[in-house]
Amino acid sequence: MPLCPFCHVIDRIGELTESVRERIEQAAKEFDIDLAKASPKDRDVLRELVEEDLLQEESILCDNDFHLLVDDIVDEVEARFEYVTEGELRKGRDGWPVVWNLESEQRATFVRAVNRCSSNYAPNFGRLLTPIVEGMRVSGPFCPEWSADTERKLVLLDGQGIGHTADRTSSLSTSITKRFQQADVILLVDNAAQPMEAGPNAVLRTLISSGHESKLTIAFTHFDVVKGDSLQKIPTKGTT
Q1: Is the Cβ–Cβ distance between 202 and 169 less than 8 Å?
Q2: What is the DSSP letter of 63?
Q3: Which contiguous run of DSSP H or E holds residue 100?
Q4: I need a labelling partner for 139 at 20 to 30 A (CA). Which of 13, 17, 112, 181 fits?
Q5: Are 98 and 91 in contact (CB under 8 A)?
Q6: Contact 185/215 with Cβ under 8 angstroms?
Q7: pLDDT value of residue 18
Q8: Non-local CB neighbours of 1 within 8 Å, separated by 6+ positions
């Protein structure tokens, strides 16, 4: 039994990579690019060249292998929707699932079903839909039992953390900045144990340039590990 349901796909991608290697090396020579020392800009040029060729009906790189591979990957992804046995799955005219809706009064049942679209739990790899989910909207009585104000309307917008990807973030995507106008408060959570990196700095610059700085609230984590000569030490139990 294969360790990964997409192992055969990975093998075919490896074969496809080998088939285009010579073409990439040839293109690099034409543009006078040293692959071993290629800058990010140079790599972008080569990537665009390969992508443009792969999308052609008669690719000089891999004939029809690329298009067959894409079709097989889509079929594999679509098969994962068979694991969705609860709720209502709505499909578009092309038969591709568009929206999934679930309503339940049982918290455990609800969370277990939603995890299929949001979890990254390793034992469930191959059955999760998380990578292709564009967004989730959850509604419910999210208030503590001791609170008398049970009718307060609160909407929390969350997404992938800024800087959670490998590249250095110098600007924010439109999908993030367009939410600034909708929000009443913009909460920036950062690690206090390290200086502000590119991601948080990009948020601050964008908020100021767009005129939404008055909505900003900053919350720092990991204050317990922050050290400095100017910081007072707080004694703990058992110490004098």
Answers
A1: yes
A2: B
A3: strand 97-101
A4: 181
A5: yes
A6: yes
A7: 77
A8: none
The full DSSP string for 103-160 is: --S-HHHHHHHHHHHH---GGGTTT--GGG-------S--S-TT-S-----------S
How much is the average pLDDT of 97-109? 87
In angstroms, rounded to a whole number, what is the distance separating the alpha carbons of residues 219 and 211?
20
**pTM of the predicted model, to two decimals?**
0.54
What token pair was written down for 193? 């144990």
For residue 77, give the H/E element and its range. Answer: helix 65-79
pLDDT value at 132 more than 70:
yes
Report residue 67 as tokens: 């298009």
Q: Tokens 């767009």 correspond to what residue?
A: 210
CA atoms of 202 and 161, how far apart (whole Å): 12
pLDDT tens sequence across 49-83: 777 766 665 554 455 677 788 888 888 888 888 88
Q: 162 or 53, which is more confident?
A: 162
| Sign of the torsion formed by the C-alpha atoms of 192, 194, 198 and 199 | negative
Q: Give the tokens for residue 53.
A: 């060729």
